[in-house]
């Protein structure tokens, strides 16, 4: 489904303040710059997320990639990241490397 910027803002607000959500699959949701920044802010402070799928997120420009990268690097619980079907100009390989026993980095 296509959530859009408003929907992603609501999801990100929940992620920022929720300690029980461990998985988020954002399949085929085209991310724009605002959505990437909102998601990155939530990921940076979330302390429960273990599995994130951005399958089919579309093409990300440098600003979008940088926003997501900052959020992902700050997150200390993420163990699985999937970007299969997304068009990243840069590699996200190693982003969750420092987290305890990362289990998968798919589509990098």
Can you lay out the helices and strands and say which pair or pack?
Blueprint lengths: L3 H14 L5 E3 L7 H13 L5 E3 L5 E2 L1 H13 L5 E3 L4 E2 L15 E3 L2
Parallel strand pairs: 1-2, 2-4, 3-5, 4-6
Q: What is the gist of this entry?
A:
By secondary structure, this protein is α/β, with parallel strands linked by helices. The chain has a single domain, classed as Ribonuclease Inhibitor (Leucine-rich repeat, LRR (right-handed beta-alpha superhelix), Alpha-Beta Horseshoe), CATH 3.80.10.10. It is 37% helix and 15% strand.
List keywords for this structure.
single chain, 108 residues, alpha/beta, Leucine-rich repeat, LRR (right-handed beta-alpha superhelix), 4-stranded parallel sheet, two-stranded parallel sheet, 3 helices, 6 strands, 37% helix, globular, disordered C terminus
Mind explaining what this structure looks like?
InterPro entries: LRR_dom_sf. Helices cover 37% and strands 15% of the residues. Helix 1 runs parallel beside helix 2 (33-45) and helix 2 (33-45) packs parallel to helix 3. The protein is globular, with a radius of gyration of 12 Å. It has 108 residues and is an alpha/beta fold. The chain has helices at residues 4-17, 33-45, 62-74; strands at residues 23-25, 51-53, 59-60, 80-82, 87-88, 104-106. It has three helices and six strands. The strands form two sheets. Strands 1-2-4-6 form a four-stranded parallel β-sheet, with no helix packed on it. Strands 3-5 form a two-stranded parallel sheet.
């Amino acid at each position: 489904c296509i959530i859009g910027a408003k929907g992603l803002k609501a999801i990100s607000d929940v992620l920022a303040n929720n300690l029980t959500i461990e998985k988020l699959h954002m399949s085929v949701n085209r991310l724009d710059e605002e959505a990437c920044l909102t998601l990155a802010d939530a990921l940076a402070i979330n302390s429960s997320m273990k599995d994130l799928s951005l399958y089919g997120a579309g093409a990300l420009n440098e600003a979008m990639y940088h926003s997501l990268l900052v959020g992902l690097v700050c997150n200390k619980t993420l163990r699985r990241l999937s970007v299969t079907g997304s068009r990243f100009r840069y590699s996200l390989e190693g982003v969750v490397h420092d987290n305890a026993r990362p289990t998968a980095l798919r589509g990098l």
